[in-house]
Amino acid sequence: MEELKEDCMEQSGKFRELFYSFVRAMSKAVDERTPYNGTHTRHMVWSGSQFLDYLNRKAEEAGEPAPFDALEQEEILMTIWLHDLGKLVIPIGIMNKRTRLRPEEEMLIRQRMEIIRMGGRIECLEGRISAADLEGLIHTTRELEGMIHRISRWGDVDAVSLRKLYDMQQTYYRDMDGRQLPWLTREEYEVLSIHHGTLTDKERQIMETHVVYTDKILSELQFPGDLSRVREWAAAHHELLDGSGYPKGLKGDEIPYQVRIITILDIFDALVADDRPYKPGIPVNQALNILHQMAQKGKLDQRLTELFAESRCWCGLGSFFEE
After folding, report:
1. Are 112 and 185 in contact (CB under 8 A)?
2. Residue ranges of the alpha helices (H) in 171-318?
């Protein structure tokens, strides 16, 4: 009887390890699908483990029971491993969109500027514009090309550049077939006017569906009882306390304490990461300031945010995370 019990325990352990191996493999598949997500989950698991230990120590130092036993810590870390699983089905062109304009879109604008300059040279030869006008046209189009190249990359668009983009949309030229066309199309103007990041509203909506797909994929897994909340928590890691998160717009107590922890970990790593297509990484102190501002606005748990900053749970991941 004792041997049978030991054999069952051994088989159960092997099954659990197989399950964990599958989870790690799926997480790796997400991170390896794009160079811009390569270490995100592993960083979160490391920091999350350190943060949970810190929260337990703080409680014990205060003479209170530890908030997380070993099984609940395991459940939270399992959620982190699986939280971005839905990114497996997000189009790679959106996942890897490094610039506002795609290379072929920017090339079209460059070609258009060259056509405009060519038209100016013809008009100058025919005596319809002066040499000074042609020189001004060439200078203007070259300057606008450089501005568009810069705007298409990281950073917000300033008011002066926005005005120039608008003026381009209102300025017309004639192509080789005599058609009157704008220097900048409405679609190009909208893409270049994106306030933050590189995604259009439509692309951002598609990107945000990764949590919906995470929920759908995890619905096919039969989690054991001590991991029964993984699916719920993973699908909610972009919810914010003031209801401005997604996909369900949950508020306040609708968001479990464990999810609040995962959300802070996720936002922090996204802020400091230097492998994202739409932005450079920022220093730790600046990332912590953003977290505190979000907490003050009621988006993040204020006390957890303070404890996260105190814990320095990101340390140990290398100089990338050092202040």
Report:
1. no
2. 186-192, 201-208, 210-218, 230-235, 257-272, 284-296, 302-311
In the beta sheet, which residues pair with residue 132? none
Alpha carbon distance 211, 240 (integer Å): 14
Which backbone phi and psi does 133 adopt, to 5 degrees? -65, -40
Enumerate the β-bridge partners of residue 172. 182
- Distance (Å, rounded) from C-alpha 300 to C-alpha 275? 24
Alpha carbon of residue 275 to chain centroid: 10
The answer to whether the beta carbons of residues 80 and 41 sit under 8 Å apart is: yes
Burial class, 108, CB count within 10 angstroms (exposed 0-12 / middle 13-18 / buried 19+): middle
Which of 262, 288, 295 shows the shortest CA–CA distance to 73? 262
| pTM (global) more than 0.90 | no
Length of the chain: 323
Provide the token pair at 219: 């619905």
Please name the residue ranges forming H helices in 126-256. 131-151, 159-170, 186-192, 201-208, 210-218, 230-235
200 CB-contact burial (10 Å; exposed 0-12 / middle 13-18 / buried 19+) = middle
**Distant-in-sequence contacts of 167-174, Cβ < 8 A, 24+ apart:** 168/144, 173/115, 173/116, 173/119, 174/119
Phi and psi (nearest 5°) for 301? -65, 120
How many CB atoms within 10 Å of residue 80?
Answer: 27
Adjacent-strand bridge partners of 182: 172
Instruction: Look at residues 13, 45, 48, 15 and name the one whose alpha carbon lies nearest to residue 30.
Output: 45
HEC assignment per residue over 38-49? CCHHHHHHHHHH
| Identity of the amino acid at 19 | F
Strand partners, 242: 251
What are the tens digits of pLDDT across the range 190-229?
Answer: 999 998 888 999 999 999 999 999 999 999 988 888 899 9
Q: What is the per-residue pLDDT across 66-78, written as a single tens digit (0 to 9) for each?
A: 999 999 999 999 9
